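Notes on consecutive records. When two proteins share a document, each keeps its own sequence and its own token line. Never mix them. Below: protein one.
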Amino acid sequence: MADQPENATEASGDEGYQTLRGFVTGEDPEEPIYVSQNLDLAPTHVHRRGELRHPSSRPYQHDMWIYEPPVKESEPLHAHIDALWAAIRDRKEYLLDLKRTATVDVFCGYRSNSDSAGVEVPYKSLQIFQELAVPFGLSIIIA
């Protein structure tokens, strides 16, 4: 029996990609170094309120700590979600506590060059959203 495509992107030959980022933002969240220490993760990106992205940009309005799991963009979205959950699962209580003073968020993105492509996420991969009590949102870009 032939292997079945993992998702609609693979089935259509579409140039799609998925991405996922975990965010901690707020007016005055913990120092990024403490977030990194408590999660035992090095952030992919950190910026502080008032910093500039580049000299002609407006300053950031919030502090932000971002972690993107090391998963290829071409992998299915659930692989990204599962990798993030595996990285932070044991620190769930810390993240729930952090939500009292900061925004803890998960960003999912999907880009495709086909208007008939899609994404499927197994129900087990959605556990992160339930456990952290954050919404599952998906940014979809058709280019």
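Protein two starts on the next line and is unrelated to protein one.
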Amino acid sequence: MKFDKPIQQYYPEETSVCFGCGRNNPDGLHIESMWDGAVGVSHFTPKDAHLAYPGIVYGGLLASLVDCHSIGTAIAAMYTAAGYMPGDGPVITCVTGQLNISYRKPTPTGVMLVAKATPVEVSERKAIIHCDVFAGDTLVVHGEVVAVRVQPDAVVGGHQPRPDEQTTE
């Protein structure tokens, strides 16, 4: 099923604070992922503040783009696999279980980047996403993300220690 707006626009207000994709983070990157039912696509233009070297984008920013776009794509793919749209059933929330990045070419500044994320495995509990980032026609980054589904309340309010992690003073 195709989504009519970026998957991040469906995220609950209280969890939309991620530096990479949170719409409620005024200092964030505001990465957005469109889902056509098979592939997630994101467009992002790095700013001058995102430099590693003159004319070259910082690798950490590219990793954030792959991470957030892949998680958004995983969530959209899980909704599609479950057969319902966001808001029509239980909220689906994922966190990054693994992030692997391969930098293929230096990424130039001043160019709109296009990230294309494809689910290669989707289950109820996790998704594996391959993401390629292009500057024009040039593949600059390839990433693989393992997205792990968590209960929505697990990401609200920060880490809450388990009883066995409690310390006494």
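For the record: The chain has one domain: 7-155.
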